[in-house]
Specification:
By secondary structure, the chain is α+β, with helices and mostly antiparallel strands. The chain has 13 helices and 22 strands. The chain is elongated and about 90 Å long.
């Protein structure tokens, strides 16, 4: 959809209706993110004319940051009551000292409310001016191709509705002209005049100069965003091709990464990180991660903190896993014959399967204790090979180093009888005809 400067205000309902009909199936529920500002009020009125085709509701997020926030919520309630549109008001409490900044904290909470909104599509009132401003802001931040693609007209909100932007091709001046021609009322957010916010400073001090130099800047920058969106799609297609041979069950093959050109490898690395819902690191960190991964030898141990996840590399592969606390010293669990034991401090569940003539010899009642690794243990999983330090068995097993402290060590009669991933000590292996146990370790999802 693309409205031009010659589009009369009267054409807006038809333009928006045509766009929504192409994107939204009949009967799908549409919600409007209603702030009470001019843009969202216009969007609500435009979509109200479509409710015979698509059920319509609205959601207002009460941030509580302005002294007028409650007045805005009341305005939205009166407006929706007059239009006979259901409204859900969601109150959130923004941490004014959030390390990411006030705007980012408010946005995060707002989108969490959007995620919980019971609709199929949530319509946002972003327009062409917003899109062009976003491109400029992303340029100033040194964003890459994906960042310069700015706001997509349609995208799935993870675990939530589709986000729909029906006004993205329409300039704000056209929306205001239509609103004024209909005698609409809206609220004004006083923070829009605060030039301490980068976007407001851009609007008030930079864009007027750009307007004088290039009056078509909105259309030009929106077109740039469209080109970048196409480029992003191509890069994602390329990353999917590379991932087919380089990523296996959320494990990244460092050798496959090294065989790609540097630019293509970094594109694959971005894809790998995005698959774990991580905020993308800056270019310097991404380049350093790439350098370390492709130069890592088989026995290199790499650890890079990325938010709540940790990037580990070992034995030629890289994993992104949730950081786990070390098990408390001396923690243990006693087995009383139940089919499974939850071991939260080790991050998983140990299951016990009764068999005959295989696995670990069935111990006496209350004889089995499960502990975390202490260090210095020895084990003889092969009766014809000598007893060795568990550390050596773990190194040869290929079990990633960061998982070893969270493996269950099974003790019987004060003897180490079994180590998950290594095997059962010779002295505790079930003989033919003897009752035995097969132990299955189910670690939690990373």
């Amino acid at each position: 959809m693309a409205a031009t400067k010659t589009t009369p205000p009267e054409a807006l309902p038809e333009t928006v209706a045509r766009y929504c009909a192409a994107q939204v199936a009949p009967g799908a529920r549409i919600g409007v993110a209603l702030s009470g500002g001019m843009d969202s009020v216009v969007l609500l009125h435009l979509l109200a004319g479509m409710r015979d085709r698509n059920p319509l509701s609205a959601v207002h997020v009460h941030h509580g940051l302005s002294p007028h926030a409650s007045d805005w919520a009341c305005f939205c309630a009166r407006l929706c009551e007059r239009l006979d549109i259901p409204l859900h008001i969601q109150e959130v409490h923004v941490d004014r000292h959030d390390r990411h900044g006030l705007e980012a904290a408010a946005r995060s909470l707002r989108y969490e409310c959007f995620r919980r909104t019971p609709v199929d599509y949530l319509a946002l009132a972003h327009h062409r001016d917003d899109q062009a401003e976003t491109v400029l802001l992303q340029l100033l931040r040194g964003a890459g191709v994906q960042g310069l693609a700015a706001m997509p007209p349609l995208r799935r909100l993870e675990d939530g509705p589709m986000l729909l932007r029906p006004l993205l091709g329409i300039e704000r001046a056209r929306l205001r002209a239509w609103a004024e021609s209909r005698g609409l009322h809206w609220v004004e957010d006083e923070s829009n005049a605060d030039t301490r916010y980068t976007r407001n400073h851009l609007r008030q001090h930079v864009l007027p100069a750009i307007e004088a130099l290039a009056p078509a800047w909105r259309t030009t920058l929106a077109r740039t965003a469209s080109h970048m969106a196409d480029a992003t799609e191509l890069l994602e297609d390329l990353a999917n091709q590379d991932a087919a041979t380089a990523i296996h069950e959320r494990r990244l093959d460092c050798g496959a990464l090294a065989r790609l050109s540097a630019a293509r490898a970094r594109n694959l690395l971005r894809h790998f990180l995005a698959g774990h819902a991580l905020d993308m690191p800056d270019s310097a960190l991404l380049h350093e991660m790439y350098r370390q991964l492709v130069q890592a030898s088989h026995d290199t141990r790499l650890r890079i903190q990325l938010g709540t996840l940790v990037l580990h590399a070992s034995h030629g592969s890289a994993w992104l896993v949730r950081e786990q606390q070390m098990p408390p010293p001396g923690i243990c669990w006693r087995w009383h014959g139940e089919p499974e034991l939850e071991l939260p401090e080790l991050g998983g569940r140990l299951e016990f399967e009764m068999v005959t003539g295989a696995g670990m010899r069935l111990p006496n009642a209350d004889e089995m204790i499960i502990r975390a690794r202490i260090g210095g243990e020895n084990l003889q999983p092969y009766c014809r090979r000598p007893r060795r330090a568990v550390k050596k068995w773990l190194q040869e097993s290929g079990i990633p180093s960061w998982q070893r402290a969270h493996l269950p060590f099974v003790w019987c009669s004060d003897q180490l009888a079994h180590v998950v991933g290594i095997g059962t000590d010779c002295a505790w292996q079930a003989r033919p005809g003897e009752p035995g146990l097969l132990l299955h370790w189910r670690p939690g999802a990373d």
